[in-house]
Amino acid sequence: MQEADPRSIPAREIALVSLGAVLLACVVHWPLPMHLADAFPRDLGDPIVQAWQVAWGGHALIHQPLDFFQANQYWPLQDTLAFSDALIGYAPAGLVGRGVEATTIRYNLLFLFAYALAFLGAYLLAREFKLRPAAAAVAGAAFAYAPWRLEQDGHLHVISSGGIPLALFLLIRGYRRGSVKTVIAGWVVAAWQVSLGFTLGLQLGYLLAFLGVLAAIAVWRGGREQLPPRRILVATAVGGLILLVTAVTLALPYQRVLSEHPEAERSLERVASGSGPLWSYLSAPENSVLWGAATDSIRHEHLTSIAEQTLFPGLTILALVILGLATPEFSRRMRIGLGLGALVLILLSLGVRSSGFGQYLPYRALFEFAPGWQGVRTPGRLNTLTSLIFALLAAAGAAWLLDRFTRRTALAVGGVLVALIAFEFAGDVLPDAPPEPAGARSAIAQPQLHLPITIAANRRYVYWSTNGFPKIVNGRASIDPASFTKLTAEVSGFPDKRSVAALAALGVRSVVLHPYLLVGTRWSQAGVKAIDDLGISRRVQGDLIIYDLAVPARERGALRK
Fold first, then answer.
1. 390, 425, 460: which is the final residue of a domain?
2. Mean pLDDT of 33-43
3. Which structural domain, as residue segments, surrounds residue 479?
């Protein structure tokens, strides 16, 4: 009989840790679990747009799977889902529920899931490196709840990083045990992580390539006896192909967008504007309960793009990292490798500068020569991989510390360390979800243009469009299409002859005016302007004012198509 693998993790342990990860996510983000249907974490910026993305994913899977990226925003442009990281990996969640309220609940559940998975993935990876459960829990907390992540709570595609440590865990475990199923599972999880967006998918792809090179060098130096069994080589080829096909397939619509919309290209100057100084690692998010006020002077004196440059890893985590580097829980070679990896990533996270010595920072080599990095606008998000290294080193430091105590006391100390890390993370805000305007669910001809056109309003229109997904000219994404910018100028005087002509030529059927959003915009008097000679009609529908536009006969056939 074959002996049990000493590195095996009992299913009961995994189940308990998974439950604990979910409970910790709920506690740390309290009272979000009590407001799943009527609030959003962090702000009403990207979250409500990303809630629409997930909802659209489910809608497209059912109604237009072959035209998945032809979303209902920015009509009549093509591939508009690819104007941002599309969160495709969450599309199956969009199959459950319909309408705005379901969209809100779904997003919040995925938000909590993302944190729980980040904890679980890092925990399992630490366990694979033979760390005890209490120390592995510190790894999970250090990866999921480092203070810098608080600023990223409005970016689901950034906090959804749990697939990275989970894929590494499965791959390392699979290769160590010679398990074909586990190896393929690791590659599938990596492909799923890529499907959530290239912001983190690109990092994971390059990390796997780097680790693959190291593995190949080790095999070359060790000779044929170090070569994995044939079945593992086949599993690697199959898994790598799954990842490659996923990445290439998802990249195609983004390439089309870049070709059709030159304004989507990330210039070196744009990347430089989002690149932070070394001070970034001493600056916490403004809403951090513990560190926000303490690092206020750093944020305002040294940072130019605060939302992307607050990268403080947390004092508890830093102390444990230093301990992990100095103690023998990991081998000397591994500690050196992790330390050097963290330093390289920190340096890369600083990005580039458009002039001076900073223009020669190593990130520029990635931008100039490495495929895919030209599409990245925020180098600081490389801090995801830095945090994973810190989490492993912090767990090693915690393991050394816990060895100084009895088993029962060690569990309590481990719990205290997790609680300290979570406390340094505390600081969520919870704005109310924007209520759907009365009258929005009544029949309104499409395509539609919603006014006023502002960044905040466009986000709401997209979010509200999850009720039926009508074609709307408005949209919100990582790029501002030049054609939409031009149309915004043309309809600045709506309702007038110029705007009506432009909309008729485009084929817009309705203009929806939101009076309660008009204050301070160029459309503040639109609702009382005369329309007698414009060939359009106006009606009040709940909270909305609807303008019905006559469509030229030559346009009607195209619209029906």
1. 425
2. 95
3. 448-560
Torsion-angle region of residue 535: left (phi > 0), alpha (psi -120 to 50) or beta? left
- Other beta carbons within 10 angstroms of residue 393's beta carbon come to 29
Residues 254 and 392 in one domain: yes
What is the per-residue pLDDT across 96-130, written as a single tens digit (0 to 9) for each? 999 999 999 999 999 999 999 999 999 999 999 99
The type of residue at 276 is G
State the pLDDT confidence band at 556, using cuts at 50, 70 and 90. very low
Q: What is the DSSP letter of 4?
A: P
- Sign, CA torsion 381/433/439/56: positive
Q: Is residue 278 part of a domain?
A: yes
pLDDT at 147 over 70: yes
CA dihedral 318, 322, 324, 325 (to 10 degrees): 140
Q: Which two tokens stand for residue 163?
A: 């697939």
Is the same domain home to 421 and 528? Answer: no
As for how many domains the chain has, the answer is: 2
Give the domain-ending residue among 365, 392, 425: 425
Please report which confidence band the pLDDT of residue 557 belongs to, taking 50, 70 and 90 as the band edges: very low
CB 472 within 8 A of CB 462: yes
Q: For 337-361, how does the pLDDT look when each residue is reduced to its tens digit (9 = 90+)?
A: 999 999 999 999 998 887 777 677 8
Nearest Cα residue to 320 out of 498, 170, 135 = 135
Residue 23 falls inside a structural domain: yes
Angle, vertex CA 15, rays to CA 10 and CA 18, nearest 5: 125
Strands 544-549, 536-541: pairing is antiparallel
3-class SS at 354?
A: coil
Using CA atoms, how far apart are residues 44 and 522, in angstroms rounded to an integer? 22
Tell me which residue of 124, 203, 243 sits closest to 384, measured CA to CA.
Answer: 203
Nearest to 395, CA basis, from 310, 336, 337, 335: 335
Cβ neighbours for 362, distance < 8 A, ≥ 6 positions apart: 344, 347, 348
Q: How far is Cα 291 from Cα 317, in angstroms, rounded to an integer? A: 14
By CB atoms closer than 10 A (0-12, 13-18, 19+), residue 539 is exposed
Residue 437 counted as domain residue: no
Q: Give helix then strand counts, H and E, for the chain.
A: 21, 4
Which range, of 38-52, 228-242, 293-307, averages the lowest pLDDT? Answer: 293-307
For residue 195 the two structure tokens come to 């499907």
Instruction: Give 42: exposed, middle or buried? Use CB within 10 Å, 0-12, 13-18, 19+.
Output: buried
Q: How long is the chain?
A: 561
Tokens of 378: 């925020």
- The answer, yes or no, to whether residue 223 has pLDDT greater than 80, is no
